[in-house]
Amino acid sequence: MNQSGRKANRLINETSPYLLQHAYNPVDWYPWCEEAFAFAKEQDRPVILSIGYSTCHWCHVMERESFENNDVASFMNEHFVCIKLDREERPDLDHIYMDAVQAMTGQGGWPLNVFLTPDRKPFYGGTYFPPVSYAGRPSWMEVLRHILKLYISKKSIIREQTEKLLQHLNQMNQLQGTGSFLDLDDDYFHRTYNIIKQHFDRENGGYGSAPKFPSTYTTQFLLLYHHAYDSKDALDHALLTIKAMLRGGIYDQIRGGLCRYATDDGWLVPHFEKMLYDNANFVKVLCELYKHTGDSEILSGIKQTTDFILSEFQSSNGMFYAAFDADSEGIEGKYYCWTAEELKQLLGDDYNWFADYYQITETGNWEHTNILCRKQSPDQFALSINLKQEEFLSKLQEVHSKLITTAQHRIKPGLDYKHIVSWNAMMIDALVQVSSILDDEKVMNRSRLAYDRLISSVFNDDRLFHQVSKDKIQHDALLDDYAFLIRASISLYAHTGMAGYLQQAQKLTNLTIANFWNRDQGVFQYAHMNKQDVLIDKLEIFDNVIASGNSAMLDNLIILNRVDQNRTMQDCIDQLISKSVALCGSYPTSFSNWLCIFLRLFKHKGEIVLTGTQAIARINVLSKRVSPEYLILPLTDENTPGSLFKSRLDRQKDFLYYLCHQNTCSLPSSDWEGVLYKLRN
Q: What span, in angstroms and rounded, lies between the C-alpha atoms of 389 and 397?
């Protein structure tokens, strides 16, 4: 029993923070397991599958309103078999049942509440249901009574509907693309850019209207498009977008770190949860934008966000946590917001300039409190109050420290302590880029530590797992886990020259092709071929807040195939392009990572292989430059695999480079200015 005298349900034995949040509900929750469905069959009961995640605000709301209500729980326990699922533990299941609910209702989101037959087939579902009906939305109890009546009286209709729904979902899962690399030309990219441009929010930055997500892959494409076609408009919108986020409430002005999305057009009011993957993508696009602009405000954003990541997201074991909750003490954003009176008492004489800089008002800008946001860069504001930039930044840091110290007395938002492989790999890759921009060996060492701990924890005997939670490895890895771990391996190799990283990337790639490649469809499927408890071999090709595993794998395959040409890899590359190129051209905002890969592929000029005692130092110089046309690779280790590197290692000279194309290389040269010239032109 807990402190309130409540008895634990079956979830008490789980490790997921989300499931443990529900462990003392009066609902007799099962985790996703065979036992639950066997009991449903034995009792001939419908199944409630309730899906959420630990940092989901409306999941918390529905728990308080319905799942902690004894009368509601009693009805659920008597008439249903109730299953709780953490979507981050089993995204393969979440994707399938989300597709089903969207097909039935046209809506989706979390909490996701799906009603299943005992053989796991969905027949009704929705998202948040209130305790009392309002605005045309039925209450949770009304839904339960209706579903129970339907299940008892119309089983044959339910069976018929579930089969039709599954047929529909399988049809949705068929890909018909017939394009090729030859479809990529300048007009293709101009057309896709013009489609994206129609969604530009010219006033606030970003794309479309609220709710507004960071959309970092789309911004990455703008930077590539600017570089390829000298588009000032693309660069200007990328800069407007990123600076608007850096100055908005979606970004934690005091600690650094990006929230999941903004509920308004102007990036002021976020949903306050902070996700690892969002911050990985954000710091990565900051690095790319800084390469293009050298903007000091962007550089400050890189440093502050990185400090936040390393101090708050990285655990003592070296791996990264999954997320921080939006709520504390049951109130969204309470940890992050301030009243004017609190700030006056805390800051004294510094209040006035601080209030001007961060738009503080007596009435507040949200729920009678202030979400800190700003209209100017530090440079601009320092000039407006007649301070030198260094002096203002020093004062700002001092005040930030005061606020952070004061906030330590508040109750912190909940931490989701899971170590998810794909998200960790995304962060490792991002921090490798940061280490290069900042020339910071500490950041590189932290990323290498995370990688080493991750590999040693989740990769055993050619089997990769999806996560570590409370020191337990759990669930077979999904396509995302493989794809982003391969990407992290390639990134570490490219910046260190250490052959082991490239060897690991090749090994993981071979396993991915063997276990995920769907020969009938010509793409990778989301779950392992041997997965038994999924209704559909789901194919994920859309880029969302996280790039699809298929687009990430295409990027990996292109790089690895240039290092060591392989017929199987080339076949996968050709088929992935065939299935996606037309869709990407028509719906670029849903395929923005694909679009980035296609543009780099179309503009590719060759590989630059650097060897010699100074190769890594030269790599670090080149990595600060914008050079997507070239794949820059180090050769410093005699064990580096790949036909591209054969007989080219040099350990005598300071520096040699080879310019290669389609596995044929020029004679070696030590002309450093020649390399720089190629990248400039």
A: 12
CB 479 within 8 A of CB 524: yes
C-alpha neighbours within 13 Å on the C-beta side of residue 629: 12
CA atoms within 13 A on the CB side of 536: 25
Phi, psi of 431 (to 5 degrees): -70, -30
Count the Cβ atoms, other than its own, within 10 Å of residue 408.
8
Convert 113-143 to b/e letters by CB count within 10 Å (16 or more is b): bbbbbbebbbbbbbbbbbeeeeeeebbbbeb
Model confidence at 176, in pLDDT bands (50, 70, 90)?
A: confident
Question: Residue 603 and residue 581: Cα distance in Å, rounded?
Answer: 16
Please give the pLDDT value at position 433.
98
DSSP class of residue 527 equals S
**pLDDT over 70 at 4, yes or no:** no
Task: Give the pLDDT band (50/70/90) at residue 330.
Answer: confident
pLDDT in tens, 23-80: 999 999 999 999 999 999 999 999 999 999 999 989 999 999 999 999 999 999 999 9
Angle in degrees, CA 32, 36, 39, rounded to 5: 170
Q: What is the mean pLDDT of residues 177-185?
A: 92
CATH of domain 184-335+416-602: 1.50.10.20
| 403/304 Cα distance (integer angstroms) | 15
**What angle is formed at CA 18 by the lines to CA 59 and CA 471, rounded to 5 degrees?**
165
Contact residues for 352 (Cβ-Cβ < 8 A; gap 6+) = none
What ranges do the domains of the chain cover?
A: 10-172, 184-335+416-602, 340-409, 606-680
Q: How far is CA 44 from CA 71, 120, 163, 299, in A?
A: 22, 13, 18, 60
Per-residue pLDDT at 1: 55
Distance CA 600, CA 632 (A): 13
Q: What share of the chain is helix, strand, coil (3-state, %, to 5)?
A: 50, 15, 35
What amino acid is encoded at 485 in this protein? L
Mean pLDDT of 160-173: 94
Q: Which residues pair with 518 in a beta bridge?
A: 523
How many angstroms separate the CA atoms of 290 and 280, rounded? 16
pTM of the model: 0.96
Domains 10-172 and 184-335+416-602 share a fold: no
Q: For domain 10-172, give the CATH number.
A: 3.40.30.10
Alpha helices for 49-198 (secondary structure H): 57-62, 70-79, 91-105, 140-153, 155-172, 186-197
Q: Is 118:44 a contact under the CB 8 Å cutoff? A: yes
> What is the tens place of the pLDDT at every residue in 584-610?
999 999 999 999 999 999 999 999 999
- Range from 196-200, 566-570, 626-630 carrying the lowest mean pLDDT: 626-630
Query: d(Cα 493, Cα 640) in Å, to the nearest integer?
Result: 9
